[in-house]
Structure formats: C-alpha cells, structure tokens
Batch of 2 targets.
Target 1
Amino acid sequence: MNITFAHTKGGVTKSALASNLCVWLHQKGHNVAAIDLDAGEYGNKSLTTSVGQAAPEIPIYQPADAAELRDLLPQLAEQFQFTVADAPGGFQSTTQTNVELLKHSDFVLIPVKPEFDAIEPLSVVEQIIEVARLENPLLQARVIINCLDGRTRTGRDPQSIVDMIHAITPNLKIMNQKVRIDSSAFQTARINGSVVVQGGRSPAQEDLNSLFAELLSDMIAAISRLSQKLATTAYS
Ligand SMILES: Nc1ncnc2c1ncn2[C@@H]1O[C@H](COP(=O)(O)OP(=O)(O)OP(=O)(O)O)[C@@H](O)[C@H]1O
Ligand SMILES: [Mg+2]
C-alpha cells in the first residue's frame, strides 16, 4: 500500500503527519518504509529527520529524480506492506516526479489546516488527482483536517470546515477523525527527537491514533473492494 502526503500549499503539516503515520504503522508491527521527496527541507522538519530520529530502524529512501522514483516504487511495493511518501513542496501535476508518485500511489492524503488559504487550493489538488486517475483509476484521496483550535469559532465548529471543503471540492472525501492543535505534544516530541504517537497521552496523540485507525480500515476496505471486483471478473 503506497501512501502519499501532498498539497499544493506548504506548511499544511504533511511531514508531521507522514512521520507520525510511519512510526504508528511500525509500532503496529507493519513493515514500512519512508520516501522523502522533500529531504532538503530546512531544520528538523523533514520526514528523513523525524523518522530517522524517532525510529531509526525504518528504512528511508530519497530518490534523486523521477527516473529513480519510477524504478524504486514498484520495488518497495514488493518489499514493504506500506510506503509513506512526503511529496515535494509546491506539489503540481506537471513535474515528472509527481506524475510518477501519483501513478504508483494507492492513497493520497491531503492535510489542511482550518484556514481558507489551505482549503481554497483543494480545487487544484482535486484536478491533479483527476489527471492522475486517468493512469491510476483506483487512486483514493482523503483530506485530513489538522490543527483544530477550540479557542476559535471554526475550531469549535468543525462542521463549518467540512462544509467549506465540500463547497470547494464536493467529491474529495474527508476523514471523520480530525486532529486538534496541540503545540505542547508536538514541541515535546521535537525536543525528545520522537514523534507524537510515541509520547505520553496527549490530545494530539489520541486524535492521531484514531485517525490512523480510521485510515487503516479505509485501506482494508479499498483492498477488499478490489479483490471482490477481481474475483467477479475472474469468474464471470
Ligand atoms: N496538531 C498539531 N498541533 C500543533 N502543531 C502541529 C500539529 N500538526 C503539525 N504541527 C506542526 O506544524 C508545523 C508544520 O508542519 P509540517 O512541517 O509537517 O508542514 P509541511 O506541510 O510538511 O510543510 P512544508 O510545506 O514546509 O514541507 C510543524 O512544526 C508541526 O510540528
Ligand atoms: Mg514538509
């Protein structure tokens, strides 16, 4: 199962969610690899740095170009139950790296913060996914609402964010489980060289655990739909 985190807008928490998902899958005993296409990211925010510090036993790949990525993805799909890729910042459909990435992904996860700036470009993200589906019709997409802040009006009313997303992209599915803003848990993790899902109990840890469990069940449902379809065609 190849999972890609992508968005055309930067700073929407792609790398933070990708590193937590990698470590969560690893904690659950799954065989997982990280693919970092944004390794040049400054500071300690990249997938390579976060996963490298938090769970050094998880293999990390940094393909240098689209050709390397094209050869690597099918190999990793054979070798690992899950790959988690962090797409480069400024994600566009036109770069060859992104074409390859989406062609070989099963799920594309699109984090948003509850801000118009992060939600408005979802129409472009949806178009990119539609183009990718011409070559990869089974590509699934999910929006993840992160950084809900109970001190703000929208934070107290998550349905208003869901409605805003549906108004812009009626066909993009949104994960039910949303993630609360929790600077303390993320800061503690950064100081400890860990990720939030490894830390003590915190609101963000609770939310991420439920979010990833929901995602896993969506992925299992997608696989089972596919195998039913294959079985029907095989016997018809
Ligand atoms: N629920 C949360 N509560 C508080 N802080 C969070 C939460 N989720 C993520 N963050 C923090 O938000 C910041 C931005 O996230 P991140 O670097 O993952 O974004 P990005 O989409 O990868 O950005 P870039 O486009 O620069 O690659 C990070 O410092 C991260 O720790
Ligand atoms: Mg990043």
Note: The pocket of magnesium ion (ligand 2) is lined by residues 14-15, 38, 41, 45, 86 (CB under 6 Å).
Target 2
Amino acid sequence: MLLDLYSTLLTRVEVRPVEYVAPVVIRPIRPDDEGKLGAFFRGLSDRSRHRRFHAVMNDLPADVLARFVRPDGCDEVALVAVMRRLGGESVIGEVRYAIIDGKTRKAEFAIAVADVAQGIGLGKRLLRGLMRRATENKVAVLYGDVLPENQAMLALAREFGFRQRRDPHDPRLLLVEKSLEAARLAV
Ligand SMILES: CC(C)(COP(=O)(O)OP(=O)(O)OC[C@H]1O[C@@H](n2cnc3c(N)ncnc32)[C@H](O)[C@@H]1OP(=O)(O)O)[C@@H](O)C(=O)NCCC(=O)NCCS
C-alpha cells in the first residue's frame, strides 16, 4: 500500500526515483517545519488554498506560520505528511485541530493535501491520525467548516462518520462534526 502510494507520487511529481530515498511519513509538526509548511501552502492551487482557508490567501502571515508549527500537542495538534528525499523533506499534507472551547472541549480541524498528491489516500491517513490524537487528548467533538462544493472533503468526512449540517454561524458553509466521546470510552 505504502509502496503503491510512493510510486504514484513519483509518477505524479515527475521526478527520477533516485532523487527520493524514503516514502511518505506522517509525523507531528515541528518548529523547524516553518519554511517547508510555508512552501506547502504557497504551492497549493488557488482552488485548494481557497478550500482550506475559505479566503484568497497567497501567503500565510509570518506570525500565523510561526504559531502553526508550535502547537502545544494537546489542545492544539498538527500532523504533517512529509516526503523524504536526498537533501531534505517536503511537506505534502497537513492536518490540525485546535480546541475552541475549553469547557466543552470542542475542537475545530482543517486539512490540506498537495494537489499532486490528492486522491491517493493521504487525506484519509492524516485525518485518521488526527482523530486518534484528538481522542487521546479528550477532545469531545471535532468539527470543521466546509464549502458546499467541496465534495472531496464532504466525502472524506462522511467516511469517518462526521455528520453534516448547515453552519449556524455562516449559511454559506456546511459544518461537519463528530463526537469522539464513544471512541474515547472504548480506548
Ligand atoms: C479534501 C482533501 C484533504 C482530501 O484529501 P485526499 O488525500 O485527496 O483524499 P483521499 O485520497 O484520502 O480520499 C479519501 C476519501 O475522500 C473522498 N474523495 C477524495 N477525493 C474526492 C473527490 N475528488 N471527489 C469525491 N470524493 C473524493 C473519497 O471518499 C475518498 O475515499 P475512497 O478513496 O475510499 O473513495 C484534499 O482534496 C484537499 O486537500 N483539498 C483542498 C483543501 C481542502 O479542501 N481542505 C478541506 C477544508 S478543511
């Protein structure tokens, strides 16, 4: 499975295999990912960036980027999918949550996968990893805002059992949400 994913990626990014020495790894984000994460967001297509941020945004402000790579690991968690190659790593996917309400332990999540790597299972791996950590960290509800035309994200959320409804705060958006309480009790 991993090898399939790796060879698909190699084909899609049209690089010679010799340039890449290791497959895709999913790991917690680190402060030294700042430059790589910035490059990842800049490299997204306008459509993917708009779907991720719901806004026209070419570059993330430096203070936001600095915060993004320093989550506290409990109330904020971020994972990156990195492709290792000779001379370094590239970020090709990112997922995160942040607790929005400490009392209810509701957390908002967001995810993006590099355009060349979409549709081959990375989104699923990232979201699964995030949900596992959210459950361990006693997040009660995980939710995200999704543009109604974003069929890929809606289908991904559905696969993981998220319920979908109109966002009560913004009628232009859909809200996908999932209670993690049952999963936590089962751990
Ligand atoms: C949404 C997104 C994260 C999905 O990641 P991905 O790596 O492409 O998704 P996967 O390959 O893991 O696919 C997982 C499931 O999503 C659904 N899916 C993925 N791409 C799809 C598409 N183009 N149309 C319909 N469903 C799709 C399928 O149900 C798929 O499961 P399957 O392969 O078993 O059929 C990715 O498309 C993306 O980064 N989009 C831009 C940013 C964004 O929309 N972020 C969400 C806002 S929070």
Note: Strands lie at 20-28, 76-85, 88-101, 106-113, 141-146, 163-166, 174-179.
